[in-house]
Amino acid sequence: MLDYNQPIDRARPEAPQQRPQAGFSALELVNLLWRRKIAIAAAALLGATLAVTVGKSLTPRYTATAQLYVDPRELQLVDRELTPRAQDVSGMSMVVESQARLITSNSVLLQVIQQAGLDKDSEFGGGDGKTLMSSLLGLIGLQLRAPSAAETKEVQLAALDALNRHITIRKTEKSFIVDVEVWSTDPAKAAMLANTLTNVYLADSRNSQALAARRATSDLSGRLKELRDRLRNAETALATYKAQNNFVGTQDALISDQQLSASNQRLSAARAATMDAQARLDQIEASRRTAADAGAIPEALQSPTIANLRAQYADARKKYAEQAGELGPRHPALRQTEKQVEDLKRTISEEIDRFAQSAKNDLTRARDYEASLNRALEAQKRQSVQLSQAAVRLRELEREADASRDVYQSFLKRSRETEEQESLNTSAARVVGEATVPQRRSFPPAMSLFAMIGFIFGAIAASSWFVASELLFAGPPMPAATQARRGRTPAPQTPRAPEPAHASEAALPQVSRATEVAQALPEQALPEPTLPELAAPPLQPAAVERPLIAKPLIARLQEADVIHTLGAILATGGGVDLTRLGWPTLRPGFPLTSLLNAWRDMRAVAARRIGGKAMPVIALVGGGETTGRSVTALNFVLAAARDGVRVLMIDADHQAHSLSNKVHRPGKSEPSRLGWLSNGSKAAREIKTVNGISVLPAAEGDAGKAAEAIRKAIAQARSAGGYDLVILDGPTTPLAAGGRKLLDEVDALVAVLPTSMDINDSLEEILSTLGRAERKLVGVVLDELTPAAQARQRGRQYA
Asked: What is the C-alpha separation between 695 and 693, in angstroms, rounded?
């Protein structure tokens, strides 16, 4: 264990080897890789060699490809097929994808295994069936038992799993082409397996269609007998019912319906005949009642007997008229002729009476016929009503018989169609490209690619190793001069200007921060104190160019943020290392988010206050114990350098010279980039540290001359350039005249308040000393470090 508070007297050892900063710029990374180019190239060549060796050790694979045309629109050989075709494009695509999946189905692959004998192929998990033991036993005439069915099944399943991994099915978009890829260690075997797989798939597709048709035929035939019996029963029931209910007739109509229609027609005709007979009789009767000639009726005129009698009657009257003129009334000849006339007249009258009687007979007959037809019609009507009621059940039986007949006929026809489809191949799938023996392997790729990949990965691995080693074991950055000697050019850095941590506070007038500081600090550090209110003058009009007083930012430097190192143990001629001065410095690689962010905000506020001019000047002031202020200033500078800021640190404490005493003894003055930046004397020349920070020690002599020398050095640095920030350690309070003039050159002030003292009194002292310069106050650092770790005896060495 080391006691950091006990002084030791020993000779100055050489400074330990410096470690590069944990972080690189692009130029530093390029320089690092360039310095290690031989090792990186060797690692790249080694990686290429290893990659080629690995590639040579890999088992080559040869891939054979067969092309299938799978058309979902199968051949239309019959009107009705077993499965409907896909009509839309999406349906066709699904059919093609399903067929592509069927190629790698277990049923197809098992047939390929059997045909190609893959269960005996060692590449697919099988064997030739002869092990060393079986061969030895065969030499002495003994044979091992045959493998059981379970063992054979296990071998087939292993071959099935291996074959499934060897097959890749690819479907071309928007086409019916399916690529079947099979890889194997033997190119001829790969082509054979691809062709066998396509042939087995086509044969399995045909067999599946025939099997489906055969199964459909069997199912349909099994139903035919039942349907036939059902039809026979339905037709028998229909015929029996017709016979029982006298449903006799042709296909179009029943006999009863035909008879009813015929009877109706005959009745109509009989009624017409009755009316005709009645009319004839009425006419004859009317002729007889009138004085007119009774022979004038149509029947008498048409009768040949009446016509003959009328002719005789006319001749007799003619003869009578002739004799009456010649003979006397009593003449026998005349009387005989007269008697002949009377006889003829009576005969005609009798003949007409017979016509009237005949008409009466016809009328009676017609009326009787009509009555008989009417009675028959009524009977048929009653029978028709009865048949109509029975026809309801008849139609039901007919429908059942028709339905059974239709179903039976459709099943019979479909059974015959499917039976014929067993021998038809309606599939349109075919092989459009047989697999050929591949001439080049598909895996591994070319050795040149392996060499390229190994070369790249080797170079990347070596570069990553060197970068990681540089980051893990790196210390602070080397000065520009050292980098120049090693062939490295320091990259120019741009100071960061982040937004202040309290952006909302930066726009407000300065008010008291006592309550906020008290809440931010632990109770043991701040028992009761509060920061006094910073009196802010009233806001001026915009025309007056007077900056507003903003609230100062607050940062806390704690023991957890720093690490204690050995002091003044440096290597001779190695330069000054600010982290090896014996003061507590920031932990390397530790985030310190809150502290570093607060200091970045302070630098950003100072950069904004100079209005775009280069190289702001920040002075760290404090009262009481000055070493704590110098330690805080040193860590403030190290934090800025960690962010890549080029910093010039000037010791402005002309009384204590704490910083100058630390760096002036072990260090070695070196000229600046211009070669003449100094603090007024040769002994106070600029010192380049290994941390990339330039330190300008304090000049001996009068305080006024020292302040004037610092002002000139700041002016020289601004005109020459090369720095992004100037940090003043001091001046100490209370301020002298030279210190007040020096504050006029300062752009921002940071107050350092040790918590070991009353921070209220310290702040009051600083504000009263600054006067109008208090408007430049941008931040307050609460120094919570242990004073014993800071206060060292001058000229002594501590661990």
From this structure: 6
pTM for the complete prediction?
A: 0.41
Token pair 């002002």 is at which residue?
711
Structure tokens at 489: 């050019």
Whether the CB-CB separation of 730 and 658 falls below 8 Å is answered with: no
Q: What DSSP line would sit under 180-203, residue for residue?
A: EEEEESSHHHHHHHHHHHHHHHHH
pLDDT, tens digit, for every residue of 363-400?
Answer: 888 888 888 888 888 887 777 777 777 778 888 888 99
Tokens 């040193």 found at: 634
**CB contact at 8 A, 583 and 662:** yes
CATH of 553-788, one of 3.90.190.20, 3.40.50.300, 3.30.200.20, 3.40.50.2300: 3.40.50.300
- Answer for the pair 636, 730: CB distance below 8 angstroms, yes or no: no
pLDDT tens per residue across span 168-226? 999 888 888 899 999 999 999 999 999 999 999 998 888 887 888 888 888 888 888 88
Q: Where are the domains of the chain?
A: 24-57+444-472, 255-420, 553-788
Helix 106-116 vs helix 187-244: angle between axes, to the nearest 10 degrees? 130
Q: Could you tell me if 74 and 426 are in contact, meaning their C-beta atoms sit under 8 angstroms apart? A: yes
Residues 659 and 581: their CA atoms lie apart, in Å, by: 9
**Distance of alpha carbon 313 from alpha carbon 75, whole angstroms:** 103
Within 10 Å of residue 314's Cβ, how many Cβ atoms?
Answer: 12
Residue whose token pair is 């009813």: 260
Q: How far apart are CA 584 and CA 573, in angstroms?
A: 23
Q: Which amino acid is at 784?
A: E
Beta strands 748-754 and 617-622, pairing class: parallel
Instruction: Report the sign of the C-alpha dihedral through residues 476, 477, 480, 481, in that order.
Output: positive
Residue type, 327: L
- Of 600, 602, 607, which Cα lies nearest the Cα of 639? 600
User: In DSSP terms, which residues pair with 619 in a beta bridge?
Assistant: 728, 749
